[in-house]
Amino acid sequence: MPHSRGQVIGALGAVALLAALVVVGRLGAPGRAPQVSAPASTTATPPTPPTTVALPAPPRLRGVPLAGTGLAALLIPEPSSSAVPGLFWLDSGRLTPIGGLPHGCYLPTTRLPHGWVLGQQASQPAGQGCPELGVRTQFYRLADGASSATRLPLTADWVIAADDDTRLWLVDFLGRPDPSSDQLPPQAIQQVDLTGHPHTPRYRVPAGYAAIQGVGGGLLLLVLAGPGPVDTSRFALWNPRSGRVLRRYDRVLAATATTVAWVAGACGAKSCPVHLSDLASGSDTQVAAPPGMSAYTGAFRPDGRYLAVVFVSGDATAPAPPATPVRVGVIDASTGRLFAVSGAVMVGGGGDFWLRVTWSPDGAWLLLSAPAGQHTQQLAAWRPGDTVFHVPRRQPPTGQHLALAGF
Q1: pLDDT above 90 (res 194)
Q2: Shortest CA distance to 205 belongs to which of 245, 254, 178?
Q3: Per mean pLDDT, which of 130-144, 157-171, 175-189 is the most reliable?
Q4: Would strands 86-89 and 94-97 be described as parallel, antiparallel, or unpaired?
Q5: What is the pLDDT of residue 134?
Q6: CA–CA separation, 122 vs 23, rounded Å?
Q7: Which phi-psi region, left, alpha or beta, contains residue 100 (left: φ > 0; alpha: ψ -120 to 50)?
Q8: Given this model, what pLDDT does residue 320 score?
Q9: How far is the C-alpha of 159 from the C-alpha of 175, rounded, in Å?
Q10: Strands 158-161 and 150-156
Q11: Among residues 258, 238, 232, 224, which one has the least CA distance to residue 334?
Q12: Euclidean distance between CA atoms 122 and 131, whole angstroms
């Protein structure tokens, strides 16, 4: 059954955690044609063959050829016992495996200010594929600019970033996840350094919530882990020391250590500005969305100055019509000015074709990813100030997906 955009957005905050629990290959892939089987006949008439429901071809990102940039994107392969993440060089189309990583099943990445944490699970016995639920994970750190990763002396169910490169929050599930529902088990969380030395007590996350990112002052962003009404404030800023929820947000797009970008849950497309809330001062800057569009997701540049936002036509919490324009804009957080990303416009339907955005480690390039088939993606790049869109001549191999810096 297709999900409305509201259901998808409600799960965005927990996407990293849920992806850690559910094997990617079990999810419905964009562009896949559903198979509808006719009931068996009780007469001599031969059974009706299955009917294939045709879906529109994925749209393409268009622009000028990209060359001479030295730009690389971190790609995470679909779960496989033989998989290893790699760096995809957009100029040459070459994919180079990252050194220091064993073959195995890799989970979605955790972005640090100047690097990545990659989680790997050992594969199951031959022929049984990757683990599915509740398996402890080994973690590796890949520094920006490095081609080899370092194993961290940590195991947990999941990790999320703290507010600097030196610490992480370890997440442990207090019970087994239920694969038949969207509910996560209760969680305990503790901040440690990269050697595993604890820096906080072990806290229990409030019931019904999942921790998704650490921010300044030892605070945490939480999200309601299960399904709920789209007009509910699903995100919360939590102080684990006091156990108090300090603020609630309807839909968080992205966050840094100091700023939360969010959108009201029931404002609609006519008046749905992006809010940039400063955690220290409490100030709130509002940036108007393009006419007739509303924000869907986003990603901050590593230095926090620019926020890339994916906008969709109409109300982002409503079901998507058959043809829905999707575009990307960049907000200058220092001025509140919104820039259009030239060429980053697509038309998708029913939530099938959505853009994803992240930034290069040096912040010079915005990377965009769009589905190009059942197991393939198309990448493109843009620099703040450019009036053209850059598309590499060769695209990533099948089964490789761009690592995202947001949640």
Answers
A1: yes
A2: 245
A3: 157-171
A4: antiparallel
A5: 57
A6: 13
A7: left
A8: 61
A9: 17
A10: unpaired
A11: 258
A12: 8
**Residue 286 buriedness (CB in 10 A; 0-12 / 13-18 / 19+):** exposed
**6-28 per-position pLDDT tens digit:** 333 333 333 344 433 332 222 22
- Quote the pLDDT of residue 240: 97
Instruction: Report in angstroms the alpha-carbon separations of 283 from 163, 279, 280.
Output: 20, 8, 8
What is the residue type of 119?
G
pLDDT confidence band for 4 (50 / 70 / 90): very low
- Extract the tokens encoding 64: 């000028």
Q: What is the pLDDT of residues 51-81, one digit of tens each?
A: 444 445 555 677 788 888 899 999 999 888 7
Closest C-alpha among 363, 355, 378, 394 to residue 95: 394
State the Cα–Cα distance between residues 388 and 398, nearest whole angstrom: 27
Three-state SS annotation for 173-241? ECCCCCCCCCCCCCEEEEEEECCCCECCCCEECCCCEEEEEECHHHCEEEEECCCCCCCCCCEEEEECC
Structure tokens at 219: 């605070």
- Cα 298 from Cα 402, distance rounded (Å): 15
User: Any long-range contacts for 228-231 (C-beta under 8 Å, 24+ apart)?
Assistant: 228/10, 230/6, 230/7, 230/9, 230/10, 230/265, 230/266, 230/317, 231/265, 231/266, 231/317
Closest CA to 9 of 320, 219, 277: 320
Retrieve residue 353's tokens. Answer: 């074709």
| Pick from 69, 114, 110, 120: nearest CA to 90 | 69
Q: How long a stretch of residues is the chain?
A: 407
Contact 337, 330 (CB under 8 A): no
Task: Give Cα separations from 29 to 63, 78, 147, 196, 376 (angstroms).
Answer: 26, 12, 30, 37, 10
pLDDT computed for residue 313 by the predictor: 81
Q: Which residue has the tokens 């810096």?
A: 405
Alpha-carbon distance of 311 to 50, in angstroms, equals: 37
**For 394, what's the count of Cα atoms within 13 Å in the CB-facing half-sphere?**
12
